[in-house]
Amino acid sequence: MLVRSPLFIIAILIFLAGFLALETGVSVAIFEIVAGVLTSNLLCIPSEPWLDFLANFGLIGLLFFAGFELNRDALRAYWRESLSTGIASGVTPTLLVFFLLWALGYPPLTCLVFAIAFSATSLDLLYTILHERGILRSQHGQVMLTAAMIDDIYTMALLLIFFERTNLPVIAILAALTALLFFSPRFASRLLARYRGNIIEFEMRFILLFLLTLGAFSITFGAHLAIFAYPLGFIFSEFIRYHEALEEKLRGIVFSFFAPIFFFKVGLMIDLRCFPPLSLLIPAILLAFFSKFLGVWALLRRHLPRIATFGGIAFNLRSSCALAVAYFALAFNMVTTAEYSAIVLTVLILTLSSALALRAIPREQNA
After folding, report:
1. Number of folded domains in the chain?
2. What is the pLDDT of residues 13-55, one digit of tens each?
3. pTM for this one?
4. What's the CATH code of the domain at 109?
5. How far apart are CA 340 and CA 351, in angstroms?
């Protein structure tokens, strides 16, 4: 029957996740992950090949738009404050989490995965918070946003170095992707100008062709190749921004369809029977929060003291980058299911608690 179909159940749960997010003001990714957890552990619905493919494409879409959000002008204007804050935001958690977990007796590989995951900040959630506060276009907002961009670049660089595989097929794929990244912008800008506004949506087909090709490569040669969606988004942003209708349509496809399936898949991979021990979960939460908070607070205290506390909490909003690290690590058997669950639960707890804490901070403190 239709109501017992896994596809129907998943579609209903993802729809309800979006409804609850709108009603509560909490990030929709949290509800989508929770929906995946319930589906896997209560309804006992396993993952299927079509779901794996769509989730992989959702990850590629998220990384593409993470690169797309990089603002060249803001990076140039506030590069000193942003660079120092962004580096501190990434490096401080990496070092503290790694060495403190290692001191607690965890294997170096596990420590490294946790350190990379907890170095990331959610650029999309931070963008939303700054926009809602009305400080996005101010110096405070631009410094925080560009610092988060640098933090994302740092995390993506670690991802690329850590998960890359140096075998001959992958080297060939990397060469092909590099060539595409180099030649595609010039070709695409002419193509989009020529076929702009046509009824068959040729511009959209062109962008989706690149993303689907990358998705096919990542399935065939390893999920880590999805990381290349990040520089692809940065390069394409130079001319897609001049095609607002195309950007809006592409965002609609990714964030209304593919991204929810990725977050749902992240929750689906959590096995509550392998719940992480509190001896790991509690240190992970405390280390992730305070290492990020202290790194950002110390630098903003020097440059923009008025928003130091606000920034320290806001940078603890976590999302797709941290989840991508956990996703890759589990796919490569670098972490156990319990350790994967610890990363995902830490991301959920920190994102939810930070969002609630930011609501309690008066707007005049970050104006």
Report:
1. 1
2. 889 988 888 888 777 777 888 888 888 888 877 778 888 888 8
3. 0.70
4. 1.20.1530.20
5. 17
